[in-house]
Amino acid sequence: MTEAGFQILTIEANGNYFEFLAQEINRINGVAALYSNGRLNLKETLASKLLLKALQRFSEEDKGSSELLNLGFHILAQKDKFGKLS
Question: Which of 65, 76, 74 is nearest to 20 (CA)?
């Protein structure tokens, strides 16, 4: 139990290292347009799609990379109406 009176029942990582990288690769054009007035050219777009395929394969075979990097955590906690659990 914590100071706030919550008991953590479960903590699960959301995503993994490979999914995090894929998310950021998918954001490149938007971020580049916003911060550098640029976009990926055709060759770069094809390269990013190839890399995304590899990341998908790695993610499907993942062995715990969420310990290194993930998208966040899902936490299930419980608190009774008086702030104390027995």
Answer: 65
